[in-house]
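haha ok so turns out i had the wrong file open the whole time. this is the CORRECT one, sorry everyone. sequence first:
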Amino acid sequence: MTTADDIFDQASGNIQRLGLREIPFTTSPIDLSSETLRYVFTGREAELRQVFNLFQSRERRRILVYGRVGIGKSTFLLEVLSVLRRKRPQMLTNYISLPANLDLATTALIAVAREMADDDWAQQQLYQMGIPTDKPLKERSAEVGGSLGLSGKLSEKDLPITQSQYPTVSLDTLLERAQKKYPEGVVIAIDDLDKQNPSVIRQMMHNAQGMLKGRAWFLLTGHPLGMTQDLLTSERGLFDLQLPLEELDQPTTYRMLVNYLNSARLDSPCTDPDDPRSVLPFLPNTARQFCEASLGKPRLFNRLGSIVLSTAADLQAECITPEILMAGLRKAEPTLRQQAALSFQEERVQMLLRRRGQIDEEISMEELEQMGVRSFSDLLLILERLENADLAHQISQDDTLAYAPIPLPVADDDSALES
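then structure:
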């Protein structure tokens, strides 16, 4: 009788048969404290040089990193912080993804306070906002007794949970305290501004101009459309560097595959891209085909890599032949679609996109009505949702906005569905 333990051992053995101790691909941001990021981050040398050149100045800078979804903005941000932590030990660096319904000052306040665990005042700021700290903080008061006031005792009660009324002032106070301990400065990295409503972000950025020009370095990320497009045009004086991230070229993507695989290799690593062993269990030709399928998009690269290796493991393969790669890529599209939990309307748009091969602003009114939308702007929201799910991508076509499906082989059941 096969037990659950047996199944677990079989799964581990299938990965080890591929020469790996684990599947190295991940779409989650790699923890800053992990050494993994140092080994798998690939490329972006020109962009890193621009950022680090600014850090040679005494002046505090404001940097906006922007690019389309899945292009690697978060990983780039974390790589910058990882290097700063190694090279500037007297600099306080912190990372936070912008929470919903919070202004930038409160977000920055939370990020810095979390990194100052030994500062009671910083922890008090977190505790009063209802954010857990290592230990509960108490409010002390003295009670005096006796007719002559000669006896007394101390009493304690939990500090009340209240929202900071002046987060900008509190942040400035916290930064002043931080600079005494970190003389090389404070870097605040706020990720995912583009996940908020553009009009909300515009107002937030307007309100935060004084804060951004204050005591800390700021690194922000966002999408080139919507929110960041407004910042690039209307707030040109706010940022010292506006840094676009584009898709990786194929040689860089191939080197990235080498780095990811070698971060999980059981035997001695081989990191020379010219050596066929560097991409095992891929063969050189299947490694190149895989890199082409990922379109130079780091998130899609990681998603496809995980599906392809899982497929190879399920088939108990020892290497990824063209047949194994094709089997993995056939599983990718329905897997991504299932993970996205598309609505009926989004499913219809995706089917139209795959049938046409491209959708742009020249789509007819009849086709728009078939999709249940009244304008291309309405359709654009659905196309961006498909892009977020790695089921579509924007393509360059002169001045026309156009989308195409991710070029993955269609599974047999999907072929029947489309026909």
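Strands lie at 62-66, 92-97, 138-145, 151-158, 186-191, 217-222, 241-244, 359-360, 392-395, 402-405.
again sry for the mixup
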